[in-house]
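quick one, 132 residues, struct below
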Amino acid sequence: MKISKDALRAARQLFRACSDANGKMHGSRIKRVVKLVGEKKPRNYQAILTAFLRLVRLEVEKRSARVESAVELTTPVRDQLRADLQRKFGDDLSIEFYLNPALLGGMRVRVGSQVWDGSVRAKLDALREKVA
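---
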């Protein structure tokens, strides 16, 4: 569904209303906005809610990190990685660690739409592309 400029503008205003001065989102405000828009049903309310929920989803993704490694990371490495990521992205960043043997070595870190891939698999794929 194509979202009109007016619906997108309204969704952005609602999204800004759900965050505090520090930019932190509040779940209670999000629920209240969705409930009010659903009850009042303004013009294009479905498009407004679609755009609003997309903005919320993107914000949640920016606040969560996924760390994949080929081998189990030691506690000091996890703690250092957690400290570095939280320093860069904020203290409210949630971090999940996963084991992915397909990486062969190294690790891949994803925060929102940003990906840092230092895995052996990625380097081999890049080398294969250069040679081919």
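The first helix runs from residue 5 to 17.
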